[in-house]
Amino acid sequence: MHRTTLVHLLLPLAVFALPGHALAVDCAADHFVAGQRTLPTHGEAMAQCRAEELAMTDPDRGNYEAQRSCYDVTSPGMHGEWQHGRIAVDVVERESGDAYTFEALWMCKPLN
Fold first, then answer.
1. Beta strand pairing status for 4-9 and 99-108?
2. How far apart are alpha carbons 106 and 66 in whole angstroms?
3. Rounded to an integer, what is the distance from CA 20 to the centroid of its chain?
4. Number of C-alpha atoms within 13 angstroms, CB side, residue 16?
5. What are phi and psi of 35, to 5 degrees?
6. CA gap 104, 91 in Å, rounded
7. What is the mean pLDDT of residues 57-64?
8. 14: Cβ–Cβ under 8 A, 6 or more apart, which residues?
9. DSSP 3-state assignment of 55?
């Protein structure tokens, strides 16, 4: 039996194309800053998730098999003027068969 472990990651920023199944979230360039941390926008978090997924599931160097590609965990929520959400990727560790879900948080001001 596989156990699922939820791991929260604040992923660094990168810019790649968004997959077709991502929510359409229009973010302004503003970033939410909390202490030493700056949260990525939706697009930045989705791009980094895809980059991390590709590295983790690389046939030669990755330790995981893809289970579910990067996706929005829920619809975006609002916190004051800031829109926020979580992006996740589901993988299975090749050696143990354990299932993992890696998540990233994002937050931005909506364009509209």
1. parallel
2. 22
3. 15
4. 18
5. 60, -120
6. 14
7. 96
8. 44, 47, 48, 51
9. helix
